[in-house]
Amino acid sequence: MCKPDPELKGIRGGNCNRTACQQPNAIWYNKGSFAWYCRNCAITIQRSANDYGIQCQEPPMILFENIFEPTDPRHEIYRRNR
Ligand SMILES: [Zn+2]
Fold first, then answer.
1. How far apart are the CA of 57 and the centre of ligand 1, in A?
2. 67 CA to middle of ligand 1, Å?
3. Which listed site, 15, 47, 55, 75, has its alpha carbon 20 to 30 Å from 82?
4. 1 belongs to a structural domain
5. What is the pTM of this model?
């Protein structure tokens, strides 16, 4: 695999902000880290935030708006590109 362009990391529509990932189509904005992520990482990160909320009996932090909302058109884009 080619080395990802560091200029594209974490920017809107660029590459995922997670260093180990850096897949293209970073279209999910993380309100906690102010960077953009791919769908898979957004789901993983939001899931752990939700788990933390349950474990610590706190309201879950919403990092990615609509990530678990199947009608969000961004899920559709992902399905088309697969
Ligand atoms: Zn990612």
1. 28
2. 13
3. 47
4. no
5. 0.89
Nearest to 38 by CA among 8, 80, 10, 1: 10
Instruction: Say which residues have a Cβ less than 8 Å from residue 63's Cβ, sequence separation at least 6.
Output: 30, 31, 32, 33, 42, 45, 46, 49
Query: How many A from CA of 72 to the centre of ligand 1?
Result: 18
Range(s) of the domain holding residue 12: 6-81
* 56 residue type, one letter: C
Which pLDDT score is estimated for 77?
73
Compute, in angstroms, the gap from residue 37 CA to the centroid of ligand 1. Answer: 5
13 Cα: distance to centroid of ligand 1 (angstroms): 12
Query: Which parts of the chain sit beneath pLDDT 70?
Result: 1, 78-82
How many domains, in total, are found in the chain? 1
Please enumerate, as own/partner, the contacts of 10-19 that have beta carbons within 8 Å and a separation of 24 or more: 10/35, 10/36, 10/37, 11/35, 11/36, 12/36, 16/41, 17/41
